[in-house]
Amino acid sequence: MLSVGVLTVSDLGSRGERKDLSGPTIIDMVTERLDAKVKKYEIVPDESEQIQAALIEWIDDLDLDLILTTGGTGFAPRDVTPEATKAVIDREAPGLVEAMRAESTKVTPHGMLSRAVAGIRGQTLIVNLPGSQKAVEETLNAILPALPHAIELLRAEPRADQHHEYEK
């Protein structure tokens, strides 16, 4: 069973001034469609340091398989989720973001304005999703089929007898 964290990035949501609809949507989708267990859910303001701290703690201390963020991926001056994510990942996973943007752009030309990032820290995959509930559903549906295999690849321990052609 996949262990998942859902991090909503929203100034208004973190202050209790706006109900978070996207985070619960993500939770419903991953528990129903991926048979995953959501071990952590939190709402933080659009502050890079707080986003980074949550991501690092959830990966290094909780050893989550997957972290899905929602919010803070647009052009607004306070949208810093992609930069915070880039600061903590070791490697990017651009194909996931390309698939999400392509799907979103089918619905609205504004989909191409997403600055979302996906990447890997250790054995954990982090994916930035948009902030709106509708956009979360569209983009997460685009990548859900690939996520179990991605996590399986990250968590696989290489066998001692397994060599690639180029190593011989």
Report the CATH topology name.
Molybdenum Cofactor Biosythetic Enzyme, Chain A
Overall number of strands: 6
In total, the number of domains comes to 1
Q: How many helical stretches?
A: 7
- Name the strands of the widest sheet in spatial order: 2-1-3-6-5-4
Q: Helix content range of the residues, please?
A: 40-55%
Unreliably modeled segments: 161-168
Gross CATH architecture: 3-Layer(aba) Sandwich
Shape: globular
Mean pLDDT: 94
Description:
By secondary structure, this protein is of the alpha/beta class. It has a single domain (3-157), classed as 3-Layer(aba) Sandwich (Molybdenum Cofactor Biosythetic Enzyme, Chain A), CATH 3.40.980. 42% of the residues lie in helices and 19% in strands. It is built from seven helices and six strands; from the N terminus they run βααβαβαβαββαα. The protein has helices spanning 11-14, 22-33, 48-60, 81-88, 94-107, 133-143, 147-155; strands at 3-9, 37-44, 66-70, 91-92, 118-121, 124-129. It has a six-stranded mixed beta sheet, with helices on both faces. The longest helix is centred in the middle third of the chain and has 14 residues, at 94-107. The protein starts with a strand and ends in a 13-residue tail after the last helix. 38% of the residues are buried. Residues 161-168 have low confidence and may be disordered.
